[in-house]
Amino acid sequence: MDAPEPTLSSEAGFPAPGPLARRHEVLGIAAGVSTLLLGLALASYVGPEGPNWIGAFGRWMADVMVGAFGLAAWVLPVELGLATARLFRGRPSRLGRATAASVLAVGFVGCALLQLVAPDVRVYGEHLPGGALGEALGEVSRSVFGTVGAVLVSSALLLVTLALRSPVPLSELVRRATSLLLLGWGAIAGAARSVHGAWEKARAIEAEAEEGDESVDDEGSDAEADADGPRIVAPKGSSVVETKKARKRGTTAAGTLAAASAEDTFEDYDDVRDEELEALPEDDADAQADAVAEEDEVAPRKAKSKSKKGELPRIVAPTPGAKADARPKAPPAPESTGPFLLPPTNLLQKASAEDLKIDPKVLRENAVLLVEKLGAYGVKGRVDEIHPGPVVTMYEFEPESGTKVSKIAGLADDLAMALAAQKVRIVAPIPGKARVGFELPNDIRKTVFLREILEEPKWASMDGALPMALGQDIAGQPVYTDLATMPHVLVAGATGSGK
């Protein structure tokens, strides 16, 4: 008798699957797809009219399941997922009557328990947590056993059903759950101890650093106490305006000094300046002497006046913002080496007095409003200086001690809305100053005339092969450059910003 021909799988070295294995594979694929469909439909369900990952069918299916079972609708995809795993492992799927009865028992008891525990909660929009079925079963059991009794009875039925379903004894499940809880608690406790140890170490390092700073401060205080008094030394070549700023900061820092102490301070300052004048050349010494004489007139008044919190900010007008008649004369045209003559600047349009006018009242009102709005966000301080420009005005804000710069830097959009401004730019901090700059757009943009830029003395003294006047910066100061030194030109900025 001839031997039967081997199948394709036998030739490949694999045993041919039997009918039961084929059946398990087909049922496993069907159960897996059903699990994904139900799970995705429930996960993306937002209401009967909302979108759904499974489309109209998924929306309808999820609406029916949630309306009937509430959150207990997830029992069906979970059971299908467990059945899928058992089918692909080749184990019996237990899809008989006992399994169906246990699934129904878990679903019904779960619906009732959800309704008893959270009757006022709404899920998936306006659905009850246990659905319509949970409302019926839960309220009936509540009327018979009361709320506490109904919860105990429902919990007992749920545990009995799960114990009958599980191949592992209930005591073993409790033991495993307890072991997992203890293991997790040990991991959490170990992490907490590590964090606490690192925190204690950081505190110790910080305490050592603070002790070192205090010792340095004590040595500095002793050295200052040995001196006759505070000495103010102005740097060489400092202008009168810079000296006034230095005195203003010194007066603010030492606001509790008496008038006599201030006079001694300025006497020491005069001695230092006299020594500096002797070491300078004759021409520079004359210029410095004139500056010192002017400072001597201002110094007593500055020493007697103290920086008050409510005093008005100082408006620093830019050089091009001076009056038209006070503007320096146009520099003489350079001598021509050929027949071409440079045209004079009087051919260009001249800025009117209205264009050069600055309204101090409006600027100070804006400063007061800025301080009020910052105070509403918990940032206290005062505006010390105002720098008006052609397009924007810079308000130099000095915050109170302890204010974080990062807190101020994040208020740009909030301030723009509070001040009804198009945009607020924050320079936090201003380089070289303990202040924060707020750039607010002007209500009326000033026209920058080419004539006022070309008539500046700085333009006449420009050295370069191809000098070029660019315009004015945000503070109203002229900006020049040498085109020969620029490999390329890139002018950046938003539309209407003054490029």
Short description:
By secondary structure, the chain is an alpha+beta fold.
How many strands, which pairing sense, and closed or not: the largest β-sheet? 5 strands, mixed
The strand count comes to 7
Provide the spatial order of strands within the biggest beta sheet: 1-2-3-5-4
Coarse morphology: elongated
Distance between the termini: 101 Å
- The percentage helix is 40-55%
Strand content: 5-15%
Helix/sheet category: alpha+beta
Element pattern in H and E: HHHHHHHHHHEHEEHHEEHHEE
Residue-averaged pLDDT = 73
Radius of gyration: 42 Å
Poorly predicted ranges:
1-12, 223-285, 291-308, 320-331
Oligomer: single chain
Q: Count the DSSP helices.
A: 15
Quickly list its features.
alpha+beta; five-stranded mixed beta sheet; two-stranded antiparallel sheet; 7 strands; 54% helix
